[in-house]
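dumping the sequnces here before i forget
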Amino acid sequence: MSFAQVLSVVVFVGAYILIATERVHRVAAALGGAALMLGLGLTDGETAFHSVEAGIDWNVVFLLLGMMIIVGVIKQTGLFEYLAIAAAKRARGKPYAMMVMLVVITAVASAALDNVTTVLLIAPVTFLVCDRLGLNPIPFLIAEVMASNIGGTATLIGDPPNIIIASRSGLTFNDFLIHLAPFVVVLMIVFVVVCRWLFRDAFHYDEKRVAEVMALSEREAIKNRTLLVQSLIVLALVLVGFTLHSVLHVEPSVVALLGAGLLVLVSKVTTEEAIADVEWETLVFFMGLFVMVGALVETGVIGQVSKALADAVGGQPLVAVMALLGVSAVLSAIVDNIPYVATMAPIVGDLVAAEGGTPQAESLWWSLALGADLGGNATAVGASANVVVLGLAARNGTPISFWQFTRYGIVVAALSILLAAPYLWLRYFVLA
Amino acid sequence: MRARDLAEDYQLVRLGDPALSAARLIADQHRPAVVVVDDDGMPVTVLPGSQVLRFSVPGYVQDDPSLARVYDERGGAEVCVDNLARRTVKEVLPPKEKRHDMPAVSGNATVLEIAATMARLHTPLVVVVDGDTFHGVVTASHLLAVILHTTPEPPA
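..and the predicted 3d for all of it:
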């Protein structure tokens, strides 16, 4: 290894440890690492800002920005509150039926929007209906956040790792729908069944309190019907834009930005309100990560790792797919899956190319997505949505401990990976 | 006129009292706040009605204000009462690190001093204390009445 390679690895590992241990804010760690890479000459401004292979992936950054703006506006409509209360009323307060409806709403919303926003919107209304029924909200919250991580796996925009994978691999929105969504639907059915057993103690309720839920008026949650209609039309247009990528040849990031701009233009939402929910920290975190990973590409570290892995699993794509699935799941359970996927994406890209881009080799991308997205369910810190729900629960006087979450999470994550493995094997090796 | 002359008896609650009793005192007497006293009867802090309301409204409604609209009037009231019923006065006070100074003046404080303290601490009442002697409370309405009656009204 050259001195530059050693230096870039030291900087990268140092930043990674800081991110994983949360000793400093993750944005500071990523930006600090990026600054060091640039300062030490391990990459340069031209590469960092303009290189497609080794620079900031602006497609990812602007796709996230556009979707954050759209989600920020949809949030103001009260749609989620309406749906969740309507579901609870339709379930006539029966806890299991209510849980099924809430997790399905969460999963579908997470596929179309993003996990964190979805759980932020669904958690308060869950507290409300559980409060009215005298139910413990914790099992409902845990089930919802897991459904959000599962649902988000289904689409290109559902989970940030998928956005990175799509951009680095060239896979389209439709590719994700074709390759991941069917599995996610099956997994959701299994998850719903497993919830009946997993949370079996949570379904005792007082029938006399059902009237309290039935008295809630979900229609009142919709504050601005015009904005709701405008938001849904724009969201539908954006989703259609994503699916027509092969016809329109417009990048998802451009579609999302056009959608965000259109929504701000047609609605009476002010620019300040529209961008109030943009997570600037997340966007900057992504930029820092891309510069760091780009430096590893520039110094040849990624190339060497890819070559070593290709030599190790060369000619055994099934072994590579299963190993990647398992390792991704375990690592994503422990550390943030975003930096993990940002690092692995160029390596997987090299491996796919080395294997000749066959369907078997391409399945490495799906293996990475499934492992990273579903592994996040294993622990309380495995995904951003988990951390958000734990915070909300604590603030509402029903704290969820790390182990309380994790003892359910490990079961669901393990089950998800155990189902993903035969899915990948059957679809890409047996039936391909 | 000095603070001790303006001080009047006021509704007091103890730290261990139910929060619901504090709410009832504020509601029944149309008061903006109640004075919280310790076991020796000495004022500890002032509990404003807005703080009582903060704890009566569920956290999830504060997180998502659009949920406030989905309750009917009775359901909303029940939620608020339930939330207060399971808390003591101590539990509805802001945490110590976030608590403002107790709005207090000495018995010797002038009308303008009392007004300045109220303005600085954004409080509708001040406690009048001298060492271990608690004289009572001066409310903003009482203070304004004194100020307005002391000065002839300016010509329109």
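The mean pLDDT of chain A is 91.
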